[in-house]
Automatic annotation (TrEMBL):
Residues 103-176 form the Methyltransferase domain. One of its GO terms (biological process) is methylation. The lineage of its organism: Bacteria, Bacillati, Bacillota, Bacilli, Bacillales. InterPro entries: Methyltransf_25 (IPR041698), RlmA_N (IPR048647), rRNA_m1G-MeTrfase_A_prd (IPR016718), SAM-dependent_MTases_sf (IPR029063). This is rRNA (Guanine-N(1)-)-methyltransferase. It comes from the Bacteria. Zn(2+) binds at C37, H41. It comes from Bacillus sonorensis L12. It holds the Pfam family Zn_ribbon_RlmA. Keywords: Metal-binding, Methyltransferase, S-adenosyl-L-methionine, Transferase, Zinc.
Length: 294
């Protein structure tokens, strides 16, 4: 209950940021328990401290186990260089002073990256910050809301986000699908959009261990770059490559946090799990863009 009241208070402080995903009307927090629009569309704030604005339960690919595994791996520091690089990049973006910087993580999963990035940015910049995490997966958002770090968590479709035009200063899209038309609607005129996609070396050791002819990543980064640049002025592109040694107890969570293991043979997974440790590559492309000048 405490969690619901805390979340309702936080959402109430920032209620002008919300818009109804059904009719686009303004929303307010009513009775410290729901978000309600002018027409009466109502979305209850759950006792775990998130709001679900979906009107149906979409089929989602990822389950609770995958998000728990991602949380364990994130907690080991595996994504630390990424979170630090993003916090540093946001700090250098020159966002207008004097107001709370609102950071939306679209497709935030279990929310570790948003919590870590806002924590780090707070330390580095001393700015007032609001983290907003949104994901289609209820299991992901429930895990996200369980964290101590204060943030607004929503089960929502990033193609129909429950936020007003220009309400966000930073939009993060980390290893998740994007909807650039929606991102353009949501980002403030002096805000930035950051898109992180995997490069061919990302988790390559897993692909080598599991498959005889390791598939290339399905993403074509050139296509992604072209699409990003069609919507935003590319301000910066950073390539981030590092290797992190995971001890044996982290190998099962590593396998469980990625769909790569879904198609791998059991024997191969078992022999990988017998290793004492493994050096695993993180290989990412980061695009930073701003709204195109009209
Ligand atoms: C590979 S996971 C990445 C999660 C997180 N950003 C991370 O790096 O750990 C992709 C996420 O995108 C979410 N997702 C996919 N389609 C979505 C949509 N239309 N709206 C919101 N989230 C979506 C999935 O539920 C999943 O949590
Ligand atoms: Zn409405």
């Amino acid at each position: 209950m405490k969690k619901r009241l805390q979340s309702a208070a936080l959402m109430g402080r920032f209620e002008t940021m919300f818009q109804c995903p059904m009719c686009a009307a303004e929303m307010t927090v009513a009775d410290r328990k729901s978000l309600i629009c002018k027409i009466g569309h109502t979305f209850d704030i759950a006792r775990q401290g998130y709001v679900n604005v979906m009107t149906h339960s979409p089929a989602v690919k990822y389950d609770k186990g995958l998000f728990e595994a991602r949380r364990t791996i994130a907690g080991s520091g595996f994504f630390e260089p990424l979170c630090e690089a993003l916090a540093d990049r946001i700090k250098r973006a020159g966002l207008p002073a004097g107001k709370t910087v609102k950071i939306l993580d679209a497709g935030c999963g279990e929310g570790s990256h948003l919590a870590r990035i806002t924590e780090e940015l707070q330390i580095r910049s001393g700015r007032r910050l609001l983290g907003v995490g949104m994901d289609l997966s209820k299991a992901g958002i429930i895990a996200a809301a369980r964290q101590d770090r204060e943030a607004i968590w929503c089960v929502a479709d990033l193609a129909n986000a429950p936020f007003r035009n220009r309400s966000m200063d930073v939009i993060l899209s980390i290893l998740s699908p994007s909807n650039y038309a929606e991102f353009k609607r949501l980002v403030s005129d002096d805000g930035i959009v950051i898109k992180v996609i995997p490069k061919s070396g990302y988790l390559q050791e897993l692909r080598e261990a599991f498959f005889d002819a390791p598939q290339k990543l399905a993403y074509s980064n050139q296509d992604t770059a072209d699409r990003f640049c069609a919507h935003f002025d590319l301000e910066d592109r950073m390539e981030l490559t590092y290797s992190s040694v995971l001890t044996q107890r982290l190998l099962l969570p590593l396998i469980n946090m990625t769909p790569l293991s879904w198609t791998a043979e059991k024997d191969r997974i078992n022999s990988f799990l017998k290793k004492e440790s493994a050096a695993i590559t993180v290989d990412l492309d980061v695009f930073i863009g701003r709204k195109k000048a009209k």
